[in-house]
Write a structure and sequence with these properties.
single chain
């Protein structure tokens, strides 16, 4: 291999498909699972927290940078994983004798360390893994009250085990009973991991539901306001009315776009989490037990409607954003057309004023000819008076009178020539 130029990410990419393997389990076993949402930099504090636990039990210092850590402290084992929005802590503890404490896996973990786990708790689950020789599935089903909370029961792994749960929180934990009827250790570990993922992703997907309710109220109000604005736009009598409607539309568009920016990730994450829930349900390969809903049926009745609501609200929000944009563009076009009409009127007025100014200028030019001719004739008159001895028998008055038409003609021709040059220069510029 030293002969080749190896990509620096080759081994990391190859190891990624082998990361986060399930922990092999032999029944009986207690499993306690905690998931903590990242908040206020809690993800950065997890590495030190895990290293402190390893130090307390004199274990090899873990490397949390990989995103997953496994610690075996003897009395318990810890599997830690970091995800995009949360980190999970799975504690495993062997069941000794007739133990029944659900939190047995946590009782052996130092209390101070447990309390200091960074983040906000979002999921807490107990799974009790038992052999079919210890716990009879038929006896459990006979004990379940038909009038009580909905109980989910199913055979999994094509009959290799049984799972029982009600998806309720009891004393802070949701609970699963997994009965081993023929699991291999790796099958049992995979089954526990799949059940934990179903519970986690179900909860994470539902984070979008309160957001959908809040956004639904905003969207409904915005749709009503948009309809009202369209009525006002149709009844607008002046450009001022249209500009008022455009201002309200712009404000409404800003509100909706702000909501879209705030909720796009949450709705997208909900869709992804819900897809993972359905995928994990497929992977446990359920068989229906008469009289009890399966996990798939429970999710289709309880989770699917909430996800459909989120999807509908997200789609309505996007469609409303598009409608507002189209209506704003339509109104802007109307306002632009009105502005162009006003500009044309203004240009016509300016054109009329220019024509008036031209006529006034021509009148002034006529007066200018008279004035220049007058002053020119006076100069001729002064010259003639000074040279009266040389112009005899003509008098200064005769010379002045004769010069007046000549001066007027020259002035007229000069002004005409100047006007022609200006007109030619203007035509060349245009």
């Amino acid at each position: 291999m030293s002969l080749f130029d190896e990509h620096p990410l080759r081994r990391r990419l190859n190891d990624e498909v082998h990361a986060r393997p399930p922990v092999p389990l032999d029944a009986p076993e207690f499993v306690t699972y905690l998931a903590f949402l990242h908040e206020n930099g809690s993800a950065e504090r997890e590495a030190l927290h895990l290293k402190s636990l390893a130090q307390q039990f004199q274990l090899t210092e873990p490397e949390p940078e990989s995103g997953h850590v496994f610690l075996d402290a003897g009395e318990f084992r810890l599997k830690w994983e970091r995800h995009n929005e949360f980190s999970s802590y799975t504690f495993f503890s062997r069941i000794e004798g007739a133990e029944t404490a659900d939190d047995r896996a946590l009782l052996v973990v130092p209390t101070g360390w447990r309390k200091a786990i960074p983040g906000q708790l979002i999921v807490a689950t107990h799974i009790e893994l038992r052999q079919v020789a210890e716990v009879s599935p038929e006896a459990i089903m006979n004990q379940l009250a038909p009038q009580g909370p909905t109980q989910v029961a199913a055979q999994v792994a094509e009959g290799a085990g049984w799972v029982f749960t009600d998806f309720h929180i009891h004393e802070g934990y949701s609970r699963f009973l997994l009965v081993d009827q023929g699991f291999t250790p790796r099958q049992a570990g995979r089954m526990v991991q799949r059940l934990l993922e179903i519970e986690t992703y179900r909860t994470m997907a539902l984070l979008a539901f309160p957001v959908a309710k809040e956004v639904g109220q905003l969207v409904s109000g915005a749709e009503d306001e948009l309809a009202d604005l369209m009525d006002h736009m149709g009844k607008a009598q002046s450009s001022e009315d249209e500009r008022m409607v455009l201002g309200r539309l712009t404000r409404l568009a800003a509100d909706i776009e702000r909501s879209v920016a705030r909720t796009t990730f949450r709705f997208g994450a909900a869709t992804a989490y819900y897809r993972l829930v359905r995928q994990r349900i497929d992977e446990i390969r359920e068989r229906r037990v008469a009289g009890f809903p399966t996990i798939r049926e429970f999710m289709e009745r309880r989770l699917a409607p909430a996800m459909a609501t989120c999807e509908t609200i997200a789609r309505r929000q996007e469609e409303l954003s598009g409608r507002i944009a189209r209506n704003s563009q339509l109104l802007r076009t109307r306002v632009d057309i009105e502005l162009e009409r006003q500009n044309q009127t203004l240009l016509a007025q300016m054109n009329r004023r220019a024509k008036l100014q031209l006529r006034l200028q021509e009148t002034v030019e006529g007066l200018s000819i008279v004035a220049i001719t007058y002053y020119g004739s006076q100069l001729v008159n002064y010259l003639a008076k000074g040279a009266k001895d040389w112009i005899s028998p003509f008098t200064p008055e005769i010379v002045t009178a004769a010069a007046i038409p000549l001066i007027a003609g020259l002035v007229y021709l000069g002004l005409r020539r100047t006007r022609s040059k200006l007109a030619a220069e203007e035509a060349g510029i245009e």
